[in-house]
Amino acid sequence: MNRDFSAANRIVVKVGTSALTYETGKLNFYRIDRLARDLCDLKNRGKEVLLVSSGAIAAGVNRLHLPQKPDTVSGRQAMACVGQSALMELYNKCFADYGYNAGQFLLTKDVFDNAERKKNFQNTVEEMLKYNVIPVINENDSISIEEIKFGDNDNLSSLVARLVHADLLILLSDIDGVYDKDPRSNADARLIHTVEDLSAEIKCDKSAKPGALGTGGIYTKITACADAARNGIDAVVANSKNMNVIYDILEGKDVGTYFVGDKKNGR
User: Fold this and answer.
1) What are 134-161's pLDDT values in tens digits?
2) Beta-carbon contacts of residue 131 (< 8 Å; ≥ 6 apart)
3) At what angle do helices 29-44 and 73-97 cross, to 10 degrees?
4) Are the beta carbons of 125 and 50 closer than 8 angstroms?
5) Distance (Å, whole) CA 171 – CA 218
6) Predicted TM-score of the model (pTM)
7) In 3D, which of 49, 65, 60 has the Cα closest to residue 15?
8) Are 10 and 164 within 8 A, CB to CB?
9) Side-chain-facing half-sphere of 89: CA atoms under 13 Å
10) What is the DSSP letter of 119?
11) Nearest 5°: phi and psi at 83?
């Protein structure tokens, strides 16, 4: 199926922890700067851009020079407290270098369960976009408990895309897309290029685990993209290691896995 995202004006980009860090766990400043540059370039094209970013806990681990993230919930929440400000410092600097400002949203699931809070979120996003501010959205890991957790930023990005009536959702990860098997342990794994039938079960290895600093996995990406597509939003899972990946997607190149939005349910 031909991909044509030329008309996509409002774009939500989700970046996972693995896309922001090296295998050592240290922050990948080059990739973060390139991401900021690309998003600002999209703004220069007249696009509306929102960023859903993981990485707060990893940024906290880096800031405190720890060998790995803590095992306890309170320990990870402490890392998020430190890391949120560190991550936003970095985003603010990178966006400012290319002429734009960032504004932070820290969300918990109860925001989406409350009609008034949900509307306040939508109104604030619209105002930020009006002022050419790039919203940077993350789960509020420093206070989240099981009852109000999204669980991962993949599903959060889909909820955000639906609430802001996005045209396109891009999930950037550390693999090329959705495979029928885990490509990290199966040399014969086959990339699924396009998903059109959203009612059919996607035949893939859903047990593939996220990296040491991440919280999602391929199953959450499938769930998020399928949810967005059912609500009329085109969605693509692709590899952030391809430094031109955002441009490749918008130019309609066959990269990643494309979940075709059900246009009967579009904005």
Assistant:
1) 999 998 877 765 543 566 789 999 999 9
2) none
3) 50
4) yes
5) 11
6) 0.90
7) 49
8) yes
9) 9
10) H
11) -75, -30
- What is the token pair recorded at 218? 């391929």
61 and 94 Cβ atoms separated by less than 8 Å:
no
Contacts of 116 (CB under 8 A, 6+ apart): none
Query: What are the DSSP calls for 38-89, one per residue?
Result: HHHHHHHTT-EEEEEE--HHHHHHHHTT-SS--SSHHHHHHHHHHHHHHHHH
Q: What would the pLDDT profile of 79-98 be if each residue is shown by its tens digit?
A: 989 999 999 999 999 999 99
Distance of CA 154 to the CA centre of its chain: 6
Indicate if the pLDDT at residue 187 is higher than 90: no
Nearest Cα to Cα of residue 226 among 265, 250, 262: 262
Query: Sheet holding 10-15: strands in order across?
Result: 101-107, 133-139, 48-53, 10-15, 168-173, 234-239, 257-259, 194-195
The answer to whether the CB of 164 falls within 8 A of the CB of 12 is yes
